[in-house]
Every structure is written in structure tokens, then in C-alpha cells.
Write a structure and sequence with these properties.
The protein is α+β, with helices and mostly antiparallel strands. It is 37% helix and 19% strand. The protein starts with a strand and ends with a helix. The structure holds glutamic acid and magnesium ion (MG).
Length: 433
């Protein structure tokens, strides 16, 4: 009889889940002892190259799986997928500068210290099932043709403790979407990591493929990851909504929005970190292409979402905004850490809530945009990385050396495909994500 295997894993700089396996019966012991980890693993790119690493062949760390962060998903064929997430430390327990889970925890602690509030997040993922292309967006036929795959996915997600709010046949060819409900931010990011793996694993088990690539084809819409944020006080009361506030945002939510909008061009390198991310982040693709706040506009970088009820208490609990310039090439831990740090920076500086924009910003002249203080998002990965490099404030949010390591990683990745034709680049990313 086969012996069940469990994997201790992490989500890394390439947005990939990596880890090590052991007999599932040893999980408890491994949670106590940790699992050996190599620091240069942080520089393995999504194409399996190794970017320059200050660690070279040396160094030993510990990946420390946390039993509270376990997911076991049943599969329609073959073994269950068993995964426990954790953080990485040096062998003596001291923090490691490239541990993305710790980066998110640090960002959340900073936000809480600045605002007295905690962050809830929810991740909305789009992905492609190429075997279920054809049929029209949102059509019953398109939904029904893929229903076997979707039901296997829902069953696997439920088995792992994830309760998607909705599953739908999105607008792009073979595009589907799954939305997770709001959770405390670290849990929300863990679920986003698990969700991608479970959906890809179910597709594999069915002899199909699923890809979360940020953009499969320049002629079609991209796959976004929209990250919804709301803020809550220590007694569990919602603290995002204020009917008297600008755009109905509370003071803290307005300041946090200002921080996110102010840092958006620089943090794109962390939230949309691939070559096809910038095929997606163009005007008229319903993604995001400017650093702006808008009410219910699907082209906004930060969009205030509608609520299903106008009753004040329900509206207050549902009120949230979504950051749209993210995709699945980014680790959910890292992307959310960047958003929460940017939000905390806005609160700490007491920034005023941004003026919401109206209309199609891509139709406006650069002068008119400058007058409104609206900046475009980067238009390519190299441009995004240059913006991150020239944002010392963002580097200061992370441990010494982390952003330099990240830039080396991502520039190496961009170089791995720089000489390829666009179609081949998009194909390689589709396979990687
Ligand atoms: N596919 C769009 C994106 O790349 C989002 C469409 C929508 O759900 O509003 O973000
Ligand atoms: Mg969508």
C-alpha cells in the first residue's frame, strides 16, 4: 500500500509553492523540528533558473510548518494533496530576510499599531481552463461544459476547508473565476496560495490544465487577482464605512487608500511581477492602468465595491475596496504585505483620502492627468522594477537586502525570456502559472 506523503511548503518570490515532503504520519514531529531549507531556493525563478544569490551554495535555514496552516484536498483521481504552510527562519530561530510569510505578518502588525484596526482580505482569482474554451462569457453552455471540472474543484476546495463564495464562467476564452470570502488577512493569503495549487491539481488529476497566468494572449483579457480589503476594530465592528466620509470611507480607510494609491506605481513590481502582467495592465482591459481610486469602476487601480444591501449595518459590514493591479505571478503573502504596508504608510502620514476619478483616464492628456495628480502604472516589468528600485520608502518596509534580492531575481527572470517572441513568452508563463 502506498504511504501518504505530506508537503511542508511556502510561497516564494516567484509566486511558486515550493517545499519538501515526508511521511504524513510525521507531520506533527516536523512541525516541532522544522524542515531543512536552502536560502538560495529564494532565487529559483518561475522558469527554474537560479538568479544571482548572495548565499551561493552555502547556508541552512529551517522551514517551520504550522499545523494551523494545513490543507488536505481530495482529488478526483490519485492521492490527496496535503500541504502545510509555514515560515522560514535561520537555524537559531532568528528571522530570515526573504521569508514572505513573515513579511505579511510584519505588515499586519504595523497596520494594527498605526490604526488600532485589523485587516480582512478576500482574493478573487481568474484562471483559464483551455480545455473548456469556446462558448460565450457567463453563458450557461460555457458553465455547463466545464461543470464537471468546476464541481471537482469545488469538492476539493471544500475538502481543504475553503468555501468559495462564487464560481463563474468569466468573459475571456476559457476564463473562469472563483471568489473566496473575507478572512483575517494572513488566513486569506494562505487560502489564496492553497486555492491556486488545488485548482491546478484537480485539473491535472482530470488530465486537463488550469493556468492563472496574468495574460494568456495579447488579444484577450487577462487573469486578474483582485484583492479586497476591509478594516475591523478589536470588538469585531466594521471600520471601513462612514456615510459622512469621502466616498463613504472612514478616516482610516481613506488614509489607507491614499497610501495605496501613492505607492501603487512602485508596488506593482511586487503585486504584478511578470512580463505578461503588463500585457494585462493596459487601458480598456478592465484591469488597472493608473494609480487611482474610483467608485465602482473596473478600470481603477483601487475600486470601491458595491454592497448588496443599503441597510446601514449591512452596508458597513460589506463595505470594502479592491486592489486590481495584482495577479497570480505574485505570492499572495508578498502582494498583500505590499498593500498593507502602503496602507499603513498612508495612516501614519495622515494622508487625505484621494479624490475619486471619473471617466476614462486613458483619454486624458498627460498634462490633465498631472493636474489631477494621477500617475500611470508601469507599462512593462523592467519599468516596474526600476520604479521599485527608486522607491527607498518601499525598500524600508522590508528587512535590509530583501528588495535588492527581489530585483536581482526578477531582472534575471525577465532576462530568461527577453530574446523570445511575445507568443513564446506568454506560452512559457502560461505553463509556469
Ligand atoms: N479580467 C479582468 C482583469 O484582468 C477583470 C474583469 C473583472 O472581473 O472585472 O482584472
Ligand atoms: Mg472577474
Amino acid at each position: 500500500m502506498p504511504l501518504p506523503i505530506h508537503m511542508a511548503g511556502l510561497s516564494d518570490l516567484a509566486g511558486q509553492l515550493r517545499g519538501k515532503g515526508f511521511a504524513a504520519a510525521d507531520l506533527e514531529a516536523r512541525c516541532r523540528s522544522g524542515v531543512g531549507w536552502t536560502p538560495t531556493n529564494a532565487q529559483i525563478t518561475c522558469f527554474d533558473g537560479i538568479a544571482p544569490s548572495p548565499y551561493g551554495s552555502t547556508g541552512d535555514m529551517l522551514l517551520r510548518p504550522d499545523p494551523k496552516r494545513s490543507f488536505t484536498a481530495p482529488m478526483p483521481a490519485g492521492p490527496d494533496l496535503r500541504l502545510t504552510l509555514g515560515h522560514v527562519t535561520a537555524r537559531d530561530g532568528s528571522p530570515w530576510m526573504a521569508c514572505l510569510s513573515q513579511h505579511l505578518s510584519a505588515a499586519l502588525a504595523r497596520f494594527e499599531a498605526a490604526s488600532g484596526l485589523s485587516v480582512m482580505a478576500s482574493f478573487e482569482h481568474e484562471f483559464i481552463l483551455p480545455d473548456h474554451a469556446g462558448d460565450s462569457g457567463f453563458s450557461l453552455a460555457g458553465f455547463h461544459r466545464a461543470q464537471g471540472a468546476l464541481e471537482d474543484m469545488l469538492w476539493a476546495l471544500h475538502g481543504a476547508g475553503l468555501r468559495p463564495d462564487s464560481l463563474l464562467r468569466e468573459y475571456g476564452p476559457g476564463q473562469f473565476e472563483v471568489t473566496l470570502p473575507p478572512q483575517p488577512a494572513l488566513r486569506a493569503a494562505d487560502e489564496a496560495i492553497a486555492l491556486r495549487e488545488i485548482i491546478r491539481a484537480v485539473a491535472r488529476a482530470r488530465g486537463e490544465t488550469a493556468s492563472f497566468t496574468p495574460c494568456p494572449d495579447p488579444e484577450t483579457v487577462g487573469n486578474g487577482v483582485h484583492i479586497h480589503l476591509s478594516f475591523w476594530d478589536a470588538e469585531g465592528h466594521p471600520a471601513t464605512f462612514d456615510p459622512e466620509g469621502p466616498c463613504e470611507l472612514s478616516r482610516i480607510a481613506g488614509q489607507a487608500a491614499a497610501g495605496i494609491v501613492a505607492h501603487m506605481p512602485a508596488i506593482c513590481a511586487l503585486t504584478a511581477p511578470s512580463v505578461p502582467s503588463y500585457t494585462r495592465l493596459q487601458p480598456h482591459r478592465w484591469s488597472a492602468s493608473f494609480a487611482n481610486l474610483a467608485v465602482q469602476d473596473r478600470e481603477a487601480g483601487l475600486r470601491i465595491c458595491p454592497t448588496s444591501s443599503d441597510a446601514p449595518d449591512k452596508r458597513a459590514r460589506q463595505f470594502n475596496y479592491e486592489y486590481r493591479a495584482a495577479d497570480a505571478a505574485a505570492s499572495p503573502w508578498l502582494a498583500l504585505s505590499a498593500l498593507v504596508h502602503a496602507a499603513a504608510a498612508g495612516v501614519e502620514a495622515g494622508l487625505p483620502c484621494p479624490e475619486p476619478t471619473e471617466g476614462d483616464l486613458s483619454e486624458m492628456s498627460p498634462e490633465a492627468l498631472a493636474e489631477l495628480g494621477i500617475r500611470p502604472l508601469p507599462r512593462s516589468l523592467p519599468e516596474a522594477l526600476d520604479l521599485l528600485e527608486t522607491a527607498p520608502e518601499v525598500a524600508g518596509w522590508y528587512p535590509e537586502g530583501f528588495i535588492a534580492l527581489y530585483l536581482d531575481h526578477k531582472r534575471f527572470e525577465a532576462g530568461e525570456v527577453a530574446d523570445l517572441p511575445e507568443a513564446e513568452i506568454l506560452k512559457r508563463y502560461a505553463a509556469a502559472y
